[in-house]
């Protein structure tokens, strides 16, 4: 008789007892760290554990009792940074620049918040890697997310890493080309009512009406540099997390204003594609401009396409499917 041993699954050995050091995921607040463990499973393959809080000032601010799909985005973002430091030796003081991301929720119902904090396992493969002088300077990663044993979504993202001095020189050249004002821009715009963006707390609303003749197609991004989640630590540009949330909110608002969703819909982002083309400067206003809305082929959702602009410069392009 032949006895076979089941393949060992490293993911089953991951722990959820404490968070990883906040410096390894570039967070200032421990409460904003979701990752708890990580392990290598093969060449350029990893598993990462995260505990999803049942209550969070931003990600629990929803009109339903499911986890916000955007918390999956943040968990994968943190995973990419952790893996880069822990397994590839990218120096902790290097700057990280996210280029693009594509997110799809495959099982929205499985994001239901339970009686205990959610256990998220992220299976990661760095499919492409770029090196300079032996250092990893960029990667394209694919992430499979499993919540409490159920697959819930997929994420593909690309990012670059560089020494702080190189980043500072790049930013100085970019800012000089834009001829930015000397003082930060201060907006008088009033954020939209929370319900219009599927939120409850006005402190989490990051878009406002422009008061123009097209108030439903252009929104001003409300930049709160003191927001505990979207601006967890100070950077020399408007944070990518805040811009991502602005596209999410603008898409939900535009879709709810112009389309009738199926009764089963909860007005939640179920697919999200975003590309960062430039940095958004603190000294200039950011506007979120609707390009188009269209039903999906299946008819179960609506896709909204946006650009984020500062003057004539396109900062971000995004497509969000709301379902």
From TrEMBL:
Any Pfam family hit: AfsA
Name of the protein in question: Putative gamma-butyrolactone biosynthesis protein of the AfsA family
InterPro entries in the record: AfsA-like (IPR047757), AfsA_hotdog_dom (IPR005509)
UniProt KW Translocase keyword: no
GO terms, molecular function: transferase activity
Keyword Electron transport: no
All copies of domain A-factor biosynthesis hotdog, residue ranges: 24-153, 197-314
Organism per entry: Rhodococcoides fascians D188
Keywords, ordered alphabetically: Plasmid
NCBIfam families linked to this entry: ScbA_BarX_GamBu
Domain of life: Bacteria
């Amino acid at each position: 008789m032949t006895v076979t041993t089941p393949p060992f699954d490293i993911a089953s050995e991951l722990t959820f007892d404490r968070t990883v050091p906040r410096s390894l995921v570039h967070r200032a607040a421990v409460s904003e760290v979701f990752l708890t463990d990580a392990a290598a499973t093969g060449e350029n393959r990893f598993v990462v554990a995260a505990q999803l809080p049942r209550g969070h000032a931003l990600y629990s601010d929803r009109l339903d009792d499911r986890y916000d799909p955007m918390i999956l985005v943040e968990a994968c973002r943190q995973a990419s940074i952790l893996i880069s430091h822990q397994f590839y030796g990218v120096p902790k003081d290097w700057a990280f620049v996210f280029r693009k991301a594509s997110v799809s929720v495959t099982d929205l119902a499985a994001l239901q918040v339970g009686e205990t904090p959610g256990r998220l396992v992220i299976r990661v493969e760095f499919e492409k890697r770029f090196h300079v002088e032996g250092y990893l300077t960029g990667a394209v990663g694919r992430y499979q997310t499993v919540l409490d044993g159920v697959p819930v979504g997929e994420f593909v993202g690309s990012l670059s890493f560089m020494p702080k001095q190189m980043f500072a020189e790049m930013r100085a050249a970019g800012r000089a080309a834009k001829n930015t004002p000397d003082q930060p821009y201060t907006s008088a715009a009033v954020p939209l009512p929370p319900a219009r963006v599927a939120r409850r707390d006005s402190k989490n609303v990051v878009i406002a009406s422009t008061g123009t003749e097209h108030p439903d197609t252009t929104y001003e991004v409300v930049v709160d540099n003191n927001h505990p989640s979207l601006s967890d630590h100070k950077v020399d540009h408007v944070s990518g997390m805040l811009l991502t949330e602005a596209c999410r909110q603008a898409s939900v608002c535009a879709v709810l204003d112009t389309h009738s969703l199926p009764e089963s819909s909860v007005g939640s982002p179920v697919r999200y594609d975003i590309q960062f083309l430039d940095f958004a400067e603190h000294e200039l206003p950011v506007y979120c401009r609707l390009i188009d809305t269209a039903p999906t082929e299946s008819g179960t959702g609506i896709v909204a396409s946006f650009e984020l602009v500062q003057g004539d410069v396109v900062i971000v392009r995004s497509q969000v499917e709301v379902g």
